[in-house]
Amino acid sequence: MRLRTLSCLLLAALSLTSLTPAAEAPAKPTTAATPAPKPTPTERIALWPGKAPVGDGTFEASTHELQVFLPPAAKANGMAIVLCPGGGYIRHVTDREGYPIAEWLNEHGIACIILEYRLPKLRHAVPLLDAQRAMRLTRANATRWHLSPQRIGILGFSAGGHVASTATTHFDAGKPDATDPVERFSSRPSFAWLIYPVVTMGEYTHTGSRKELLGENPSDALVRLYSNEFQVTADTPPVFLAHAIDDKPVPIENSRQFASNMQAHHLPVELLELPTGGHGLNGCKGPLWEQWKAAALWWCAKQGFIHVMAID
After folding, report:
1. How confident is the model over 99-144, as pLDDT tens digits?
2. Strands 152-157, 239-244: parallel, antiparallel or unpaired by DSSP?
3. Each residue's pLDDT tens digit, 154-211
4. How big is the chain by its Cα radius of gyration, in Å?
5. Helix, strand or coil for residue 108?
6. Which of 11, 99, 215, 276 has its Cα between 20 and 30 A from that of 64?
7. Residues 171, 132 contacting (CB under 8 angstroms)
8. Cβ partners under 8 Å of residue 156, min gap 6
9. DSSP tag of 183
C-alpha cells in the first residue's frame, strides 16, 4: 500500500530544498526565528450568513470566514482543496498546516480554501457542519473562482484530519428546495488528503481530541458515528493518507484502519507509511514532510484530478 514507484521518489527528491553540508554552514545566532508573515488571501467570505447551526436545531452567532487563496491565472488548473488545520480541537495550527500549504498548492495551480472550523467544546456536530458548508460554498463559487466542481477536495491534518475524514464519510448531495442557495450544492468532497489524521474515536484515538468533541463518557453510538473507519461506504470518494509509523499521539492505526475499510469496499486509496517523523512529521518540515506532498500530488495525477505536468 506504500507509494513505491520510481516516479514518486523522483518527485519527492525534486521537491526537496538542497542542503548545505553542516561543516560548510556559517554559524548562526541562537535567537528565535521571526515567524514568517501571513500571506494575504485573495478574498475572505463569510462561512455562515450571520447565524450558524449547532446541530441540535439551535443556532449561534458566527463571524467565521473562509480564507480563499487562488493561484495566478497562468498557473490555475481548476482544482481546489478545502484545508482543515490540526490543533487537537482546541486551536488551529495555521502557521504550519495552513498558510504554507496554501502557498505550496497555489504554486502548483491549485486553489486553497482555509477553513478555521468552529471548535466543538462538546458540540460534536459543529466541525462537520462547518466543513460541509465550506465544501458547498466552494462549489457555489466555482464559476467565479474558475474551479471545476468535480475536482474540489478536502485536506486535514491531525484533528483537522478528523474533520476532513468526517466530511469525507458524512455528506449529502445538497437540498434542492433549500431557501439558502448555497445549501443546494453537494457537500461531498471529490477526494481527500488525510495527513497523520485522527480517524477513530475508539481504541486508537487521540484522547484529547475525543474529549473536546464527545466528552468524557460518550455513548457507544456516538463513538461509532465519529469513528470514520466504520463510516466508509460505496460512495466514499478516493482518499490519500500519510502517517509516520512512530506517531505516538495519533497512532498510525487510525490511517491503516481507514485504508483497510476503503480497500474492503474496492475504493481508490493510498497510504504512505513514513518510517519516522512522529506526529507532525518533524515539525512540518524536512524530507519526510516534502515526501508526502510530492506523493499526494502524484496520487492526484494518477486519479485524474490534476495533469501530471502540474507536478513539475
Report:
1. 999 999 999 999 999 999 999 999 999 999 999 999 999 999 999 9
2. unpaired
3. 999 999 999 999 999 999 999 999 999 999 999 999 999 999 999 999 999 999 999 9
4. 19
5. coil
6. 215
7. yes
8. 83, 84, 86, 162, 163, 164, 165, 192, 193, 194, 195, 197
9. G
Q: Do residues 243 and 274 make contact, with C-beta atoms less than 8 angstroms apart? A: yes
Q: Which amino acid is at 168?
A: T
Output the pTM of the full model: 0.88
| Confidence at 10, pLDDT banded by 50, 70, 90 | very low
Average pLDDT value for the chain: 90
| Half-sphere exposure at residue 206, Cβ-oriented, CA atoms within 13 angstroms | 28
Residue 5 CA, chain-centre distance (Å), reads 24
Q: Which three cell numbers stand for residue 172?
A: 449529502
Q: What is the DSSP letter of 227?
A: -
What does the alpha-carbon distance between residue 3 and residue 10 come to, in Å, rounded to a whole number? 12
Q: Please state, in angstroms and as integers, the Cα–Cα distance from residue 146 to each residue in 39, 70, 108, 110, 297, following that order.
A: 21, 9, 15, 11, 20
Secondary structure (3-state) at 80: strand
